[in-house]
Amino acid sequence: MNTRSTWGVVLFLLALLVAAGVYAAWAGAADVLQSRTTQRTLIIVAVGLALITGILSHVSYPRVHSLRVTMYGYGVAVTTVFFNALVLTQSAGDAMPFAAAFVSYAIIILLTAVVIMVPAFVGYRATMLVAEITVAVIGLLFVGLLAPFEMRAEMVSRLQAVAVPGTAEFWGFVVASVLVVVLSLLQERQSFGLGGMHSGAVAIMASGWLAIEAPLERHMFVLTVLPFYLLIAILAHWLFRVENRASYDPLLRIYNRSFCDSVIQGRSRMNVRPPFSIALIDLDHFKSVNDTHGHDAGDAVLVAAAQRVQKSVIPDGTVARYGGEELVVFFPHTSLDAAQSILERTREAVSSSPIEHRGKSIPITMSVGVAERQERQQELTDVLRAADGALYTAKDAGRNRVVTGTVPR
């Protein structure tokens, strides 16, 4: 599968449109939006959306099992609620809501960077604990703005000084936003839309940050739109995962035979135009692992080997379970020589160190057969058959090697 599509390009483009819409809405109706009535309306809508986002991120865990979704949903929801609570407590001429807007933007940038780096999948209790810690930390940051008046005035003054456009601090924040997007591209290439969601949230946030001296209502508008966008993004991620689950092997955390069949039969979105290479991988002497160490150890070896293969072939290849201990790797836009080079590196990665299971070190190697579709008239079934023949040649030649096959023209 194209890794860019699973990063969340569509969600990121949607966020850019939303950010542009914020600019357009403000330019066309600034006078209307700057009123006490507008403030009250935005507070009600923002808090309502934040609560729904928090609830959705919580109930999504049994469906998507994602720490990133839960932690981010909780964080954005709580940030939105605290910001609007501080707006409600403002008095005439009080600059605190502007400082709260700045703190909100800073929290979202930091939260996004942290969320991208944490493991995607952990247990339920650990997920809830991290989410609760996130809420507590964000709450403490906002409570700091309720310090005694003199201290608060100094804090507000410093926050506003940092937010002056053109200063090193201002551009530092802009650079941090760009770095978060780059980090997402590197870390979340196969995240079922989460990369686009996180980068998109930063883009929406930037539409307020880049106008930090704008009236308060503009920041309220941005921090109302953000949880609404997040609602859409979480639902999209949920749907992506449901769609993927039908083609997903839950044990190995890679695609399954159904996905493999859809590629071979031309029913997937994968680009199979030449050059397109297919590899079949078989773990050597896997039956003896089951017989000697038990099926639990066999599962552990299979999972570890599949993850090593996947880590090694990304972003060039897509891994699926073909059957038993056999894996298949699809290489779009990849010649036979290039695929062979990647697979040699993968073979070395798999065999480089034994797999540890319950105090036992289990060595593992793999045999590989690979073939290339060089012309459109060549059927993918023939390419797969050639790879299968090359795999048997590799096993007959002593295993732990990569052998290429030839596809009939």
Structural class: alpha+beta
H/E topology pattern: HHHHHHHHHHHEEHEHHEEHEEEHE
Number of strands: 9
Strand order of the largest sheet: 4-5-3-8-9
Mean pLDDT level = 87
**What is the total domain count?**
2
Give a quick account of the main beta sheet: strands, pairing sense, barrel closure: 5 strands, mixed
Rg over CA atoms = 26 Å
Distance between the terminal alpha carbons, to the nearest Å? 26 Å
Runs with pLDDT <50, length 5+? Answer: 1-5
What is the general shape? Answer: elongated
Helix content: 55-70%
Tally of contiguous helical segments: 16
Strand content: 5-15%
Could you please describe the fold and organization of this structure?
The chain is α+β, with helices and mostly antiparallel strands and 409 residues long. The chain has 16 helices and nine strands. It has a five-stranded mixed beta sheet, sandwiched between helices. It has a two-stranded antiparallel sheet with strand order 1-2. Strand 6 (355-357) and strand 7 (360-362) form a beta hairpin. The two termini are 26 Å apart. The model is unreliable at 1-5 (pLDDT under 50).
